[in-house]
Write a structure and sequence with these properties.
- The relative contact order is 0.07.
- The radius of gyration is 52 Å and the shape is rod-shaped.
- It is an all-alpha fold.
- α1 (about 1-80) packs antiparallel against α2 (about 85-90) and α1 runs antiparallel to α3 (about 100-200).
- It has 3 helices and no strands.
């Protein structure tokens, strides 16, 4: 029984250790994959965000410059309109096609506004992805905390398993002691029964009054011994 129990405990510890190692490897691999994917996605998002920011900044600078030039032209046009001399008329000559230019510039501004709107949508998507990135980081922290809790539970289970193994070993020792005591009592009972059957010990005689326990100076005669009742 002790060998079977010890073998079973060893098999259980080996199985438990293998399961623990497998769980730890899977958890470590999952955390590593999540971190790698997170870092790659974060790096890609940062690069894309920087490209979009630079592109938007260039577009904003271009539109700002064009808007400023248009305002300057409009201001010069207004100033030219206030004049009524021939010089003023000559000054108006370069602005004969101002309406067409304004219309064309308005179309360009409309197209740039659409592009800016699209870039704003992309920036909004990037902000959502950044928020998702923060959530992934929080999830990784939660998984790491769960991993620590799992390690603590495994350590407690191992300690409990060792304690149960020690208690079981002590129980086996006590069982063996009780078994030896029962065997000794059985042998004593068999000896007493044999003495009763052989007539050496009377049913009314205590074990200390048997011929084996009496002093040698007072032997018992065969005539005084009572036969064993059948």
């Amino acid at each position: 029984m002790s060998e079977n129990h010890e073998r079973a405990m060893m098999e259980m510890e080996a199985t438990h250790g293998a399961t623990l190692a497998t769980l730890q490897e899977e958890h470590t691999r999952t955390i590593k994959n999540l971190k790698m994917a997170h870092e790659q996605q974060k790096k890609s998002m940062e690069e894309e965000f920087e490209k979009l920011r630079l592109s938007l900044q260039d577009q904003v600078d271009t539109l700002t410059f064009q808007n400023r030039a248009l305002r300057d032209r409009a201001k010069r046009f207004e100033e030219a309109l206030r004049r009524s001399t021939d010089e003023q008329m000559d000054a108006l000559a370069p602005y004969q096609h101002i309406e067409e230019d304004l219309k064309s510039l308005k179309e360009v501004l409309e197209m740039k506004n659409q592009q800016i709107h699209q870039q704003e949508l992309k920036i909004s998507e990037l902000e959502k992805m950044a928020q998702k990135n923060v959530m992934l980081e929080e999830r990784i922290q939660v998984l790491q905390q769960q991993n620590e809790n799992l390690k603590d539970r495994i350590d407690r289970n191992l300690a409990m398993s060792r304690q149960l193994s020690e208690e079981n070993a002590n129980l086996q020792v006590n069982v063996e002691k009780e078994s030896n005591e029962k065997k000794r009592l059985s042998r004593t009972n068999e000896e007493l029964l044999w003495r009763l059957q052989s007539g050496e010990l009377s049913p009314r005689m205590s074990p200390t009054q048997s011929p084996l326990h009496r002093p040698a100076s007072s032997p018992v005669s065969p005539s005084r011994q009572q036969p064993f009742p059948r």
